[in-house]
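Sync notes, pocket subgroup
Present: LS, DG
LS reminded everyone that the earlier model was apo-only. Rerun requested with iron/sulfur cluster included. Inputs:
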Amino acid sequence: MLVSSCLLGQPVRYDGKGQTLQHPQLRVWQSNKKIISFCPEVAGGLSTPRAPAEIIQGKVITNSGEDVTEQFQTGANIALELCKKNKVRFALLKESSPSCGRNTIYDGKHRGVKIIGLGLTAALLIKNGVQVFSEEQIPALIKALAL
Ligand code: SF4
């Protein structure tokens, strides 16, 4: 299973921090070595910390107006290649990120408002048949893995 690195506590977020998911099932998956840790934005060539970015009109733009769509798309492509290479069918991704968001993203105006939407990596993985869940959907992920 592909898992957003920040959920595993790795300090890869735009603010230089991690966001460790406190869920006992995660420890089980980790001890079973079922996890591939991945951060699309770092893989796409962005540094940490970095300017926060949001999706607007199909592009990813930082809060200072820089277009980082290419780096985000590169990260998404690498995520897909990694899934194909390792026959990964499930992903657990960080909600609301412009890369990893599964159900919500920010509205593109850098004002803290969330809307329904997908991050670039989540969208590409779903399009290619990977079942993507957010950290808010662990019970559904456990159920899907058991099928
Ligand atoms: S791109 Fe994904 S894995 Fe990387 S910091 Fe953002 S939410 Fe976490």
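DG: Residues 4-6, 12-13, 39-41, 94, 97, 99-100 surround iron/sulfur cluster (CB under 6 Å).
LS: Residues 18 and 43 are 16 Å apart (CA to CA).
Action: DG to write up.
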